[in-house]
Amino acid sequence: MPVKLAVRNVFKIFGERTEAALQQLAEGKTKEEILESTGATVGVQDASFDVGEGEIFVVMGLSGSGKSTLVRMLNGLIAPTSGAILIDSEDVASCGRRQLRDIRRDKIAMVFQHFALFPHWTVAENAAYGLRVKGMKRDERREKALKALEQVGLTAWADSLPSELSGGMQQRVGLARGLATEPEVLLMDEPFGALDPLIRREMQDELLVLQKSLKKTIVFITHDLNEALLLGDKIAIMKDGRFVQVGTAQEIVSNPADDYVAAFVADIDRGRVFTAEDVSNDPAAMKLGSDNAEDAMRAMEDLNRNALYVVDDKDNIAGVVTYQDLAAATLDEATPNPVLEEVMITDYPTVDADAQLNELYGAASGGLPIAVTDDRDRLVGVVEPEAVFAQLSGDCETDAECPSEDDDAAASLETPKTKEREDA
């Protein structure tokens, strides 16, 4: 994924004695100590990160952590004390006024928490504000504004006034205004913070749906960790102006960098963070028409599994066979080594790789391994029920500690012959 936004060693010190403050930061002094000795306030210290093209990068932190200062530096509203902020090859931190104006007009847009809509303008006129600033003609900006409103589901309200819209709809107008200029980078500073919880969740879901088609490069600011975990491809957690951890939602929940992060993630719903792909095993499977019962039982013993899927020559699933059923079938003298078609189960659970674990609970309760399939219904992974329950309960401190084909924890899936060997 090509890097769209690159931030390198950015500092922001508020006050007159910036050099002294930077020196004391280098010596390891805290924000409080620096404020007391220099009168300068550390807003952001040594922030470095990359945002890939089409990625949502979420910056999460409590009030005073520096996240809003950081996002305002990204579009030049606040000048950094030092460091570089590159959009493609253009440095927002050091460019002149004309170049900065062009970057703001052509490459970057911002959506704020407070809608800041003009009350006497229609919804379409508000959505077209950025285009008006760019000097676009009325008919053309109306056309682009209507397209943006269509993207957020507000076409029917184009000629209404903001006062006729609910809070969530007004925030959609703010989002449409940002999209209308077709920016390459979209900055969102707590855009859903003023909404009630139900509307806020709806807006989060709508943003994710919209992002699948638009694939914008987004920097999203929030103080809500659940929101960060839901939206972020990558998440940065800020404290006292610095990043304490940057990673995916799964990395942060599984391996918090310190006690500060651990306290944040302690009560997180893991079922909404981890997906089927996070706990899936290699899609070892038997081949329809060529493998028989003995082949399948031997494979299960080698893999320490109690069930395996059966696929055709295109890797499409035909069914699943269990060790118990195969063992019972081989006792029949009439068919001592039956073909798999005769004993396989054709009613089996399947999920997409990006299915959240809380969606897998019912399937896992059935006892059979869950087939992970791609958009062509081919087998790409297998989720054992024990892996789902272990991850949901938080028993896995890291993904690697969840039951998998190579872990000792897989002993809970004992095959009869594995058990015999252990007893011996």
Explained architecture:
The structure is a single chain. The protein is an alpha/beta fold and about 425 residues long. The chain folds into 2 domains: about 5-105 and about 185-270, P-loop containing nucleotide triphosphate hydrolases (Rossmann fold), CATH 3.40.50; about 275-424, CBS-domain. About 35% of the residues lie in helices and about 20% in strands. It contains 18 helices and 16 strands. It has helices at about 20-25, 30-40, 65-75, 95-105, 125, 130-135, 140-150, 165-180, 195-215, 225-230, 250-255, 260-265, 275-280, 295-305, 325-330, 360-365, 385-395, 415-424, and strands at about 5-15, 40-50, 55-60, 80-85, 90, 110, 185-190, 215-220, 235-240, 240-245, 285, 305-310, 315-320, 350, 370-375, 380-385. The strands form 4 sheets. A 6-stranded mixed β-sheet has the order 6-7-8-3-9-10, sandwiched between helices. Strand 15 (about 370-375) and strand 16 form a beta hairpin. The radius of gyration is 27 Å and the shape is globular. The model is unreliable at about 395-400 and about 405-424 (pLDDT under 50).
> Looking across the biggest beta sheet, what order are the strands in?
6-7-8-3-9-10
Q: What CATH architecture of the largest domain would you give?
A: 3-Layer(aba) Sandwich
- Total strand count, please? 16
Radius of gyration: 27 Å
Distance from N terminus to C terminus (CA atoms, Å) equals 53 Å
Number of domains: 2
Structural class by sheet pairing and helices: alpha/beta
What is the typical, i.e. mean, pLDDT?
A: 87
Major pleated sheet: 6 strands, mixed
User: What is the CATH fold-level name of the largest domain?
Assistant: Rossmann fold
Low-pLDDT residue spans: 397-401, 403-424
What's the total helix number?
18
Strand content: 15-25%
**CATH homologous superfamily (4th level) name of the largest domain:** P-loop containing nucleotide triphosphate hydrolases
Per CATH, the class of the largest domain reads: Alpha Beta
Helix content: 25-40%
Q: What form results from the Cα inertia axes?
A: globular
